[in-house]
Amino acid sequence: MSIFNCARSHLNLPSVVKFNVTLLKSLYSSSVYDLSSLNSSVVPKESDSCKLPQLTIHEALKCKLSEKLSLKGWIRSHRRLKEHHFMTLNDGLSPKNIQIVVPTILLERKGVKPQFGSSICCKGSLVESRGPEQPLELYCEDIDIIGQCNVLEYPFNPNTSKNNNWNGMREHIHLRPRASRYASLMRLRSDLNFEIHNLMKESGYFNVTTPILTKNECEGGSKPFSVKPIDYPDDVSFFKGKAKLTVSAQLHLETAACALSRVYTLGPTFRAEVNKSRRHLSEFTMFELEEAFIDDLDVLMDKVEFIVKSLASKLIDGQNENYLDVLKSTKYDLTYRLLGRYIRLTYDDAIEIINKKQDVQPAEFGKDLSAFHETVLLEYFEHQPLFITHFPSEIRPFYMKSDGDRALCFDLLGAVGGEICGGSLREDNYDKLKSRMDEVEGLTEELDWYLDLRKYGNVPHGGCGFGFDRLIQTITGLSNIKDVVPYPRFLYHCPL
Questions:
Q1: Domain with 283 in it: what CATH number?
Q2: Residues in Cβ contact with 128 at an 8 Å cutoff, skipping those fewer than 6 apart
Q3: Which of 306, 348, 383, 398 is close enough to 415 for a disulfide, judged by CB 3.0 to 4.6 Å?
Q4: Domain total for the chain?
Q5: List of E strands, 308-350
Q6: For residue 142, what is the domain's CATH number?
Q7: 410 pLDDT higher than 80
Q8: Is the Cβ–Cβ distance between 90 and 28 less than 8 Å?
Q9: How far is CA 319 from the centre of its chain?
Q10: Which residue ranges run through the membrane (predicted)?
């Protein structure tokens, strides 16, 4: 397909638009770049340049030789050899770069000095590249600096900066999307977000917009943020009761599941975490689902395993060229582990395995497993995904269905992020649920509507919540959750 047709399909150009295809002969010979053609009549005037098709780099690399076009982007590398400057251009829409060949005489005539990080508009002709790194390059006939970059002060200067690693990028979160690896990570987040919605649609789930402002806490062990208007009197309640930022959408999703059967949501969650570890943030993204008429914990775990494998497979087999930069720099093999065997282990068996290990702090029965104990278990099973089930009911939230003194629940551990998903069957017996709620002062009165779900057309149901960011940690192998969230918020840290 010619560049004319390529551009027309993207820009709806009229068929009468024509391009000068003879200029290539005067610009580029089989042996040397010909500078003699760069006179005032060759450099496009403003009225001519507006006729050039504005393509993305990804689109331009699919077009044929000899046509003229205009490209915009940021300079990723810049070197000078004799009479030409060679620049690598990227527009952020994909990891694909294109080499721009700019005659030095053109830069001198225009009085411009493009540097690494500068944004430019370059007009010229696609020619066959002489280098082995790329099949095509753009021979530049005109160039404009859109935004200059002071390369000496730029934090991500590849020649002088010490910030071109994950720790360094964390110090400049407003600029780190410009680093190629972090741009790859953001494309991966975008694709994973899309794949979740697509998979849930295909699986018959309805997306529900759940509130960020709420009166319930849902997770008993978490600390919510309270909300009130600025400069509002402390003794006056804006919402007729204390409002909080949501710590989970689960209870709201249960109301929808009891009408639509299969529902999910994907959105922000807030918890006042005082832990500044590699696994915790005060704001993070949760992917939560609830389903009616489900009464078997193994069936729920089967669904979770299917979801994780489907998403991991999409990212590996689909558009992974969009984020190879981030996968190459981490433990890419961990992603493939998500496609293999998933271990299922009871809480009792997990305690036994941990306590058989020598030189390991023993796990205390009747208490939650620590991050250290989770790591011990993952190493024992060679970092395969691990379901831990049937925790003691007394250390699980009130809404979980129990079998004797054990909650019908699970935690799914990933190789890097720790717990990436937790779920359970929900208690559908009115009397048992009310008894558990009565144990917490004021909870029954606060969540009387939650009990109503068991009074009118009650059904067995269950659900789970994925830590979206921890799932990305497991896919990429990045050990610090602050590196997979574009704008991390945690204790003493809320910039921008």
A1: 3.30.930.10
A2: 65, 135, 136, 137
A3: 383
A4: 2
A5: 343-346
A6: 2.40.50.140
A7: yes
A8: no
A9: 14
A10: none
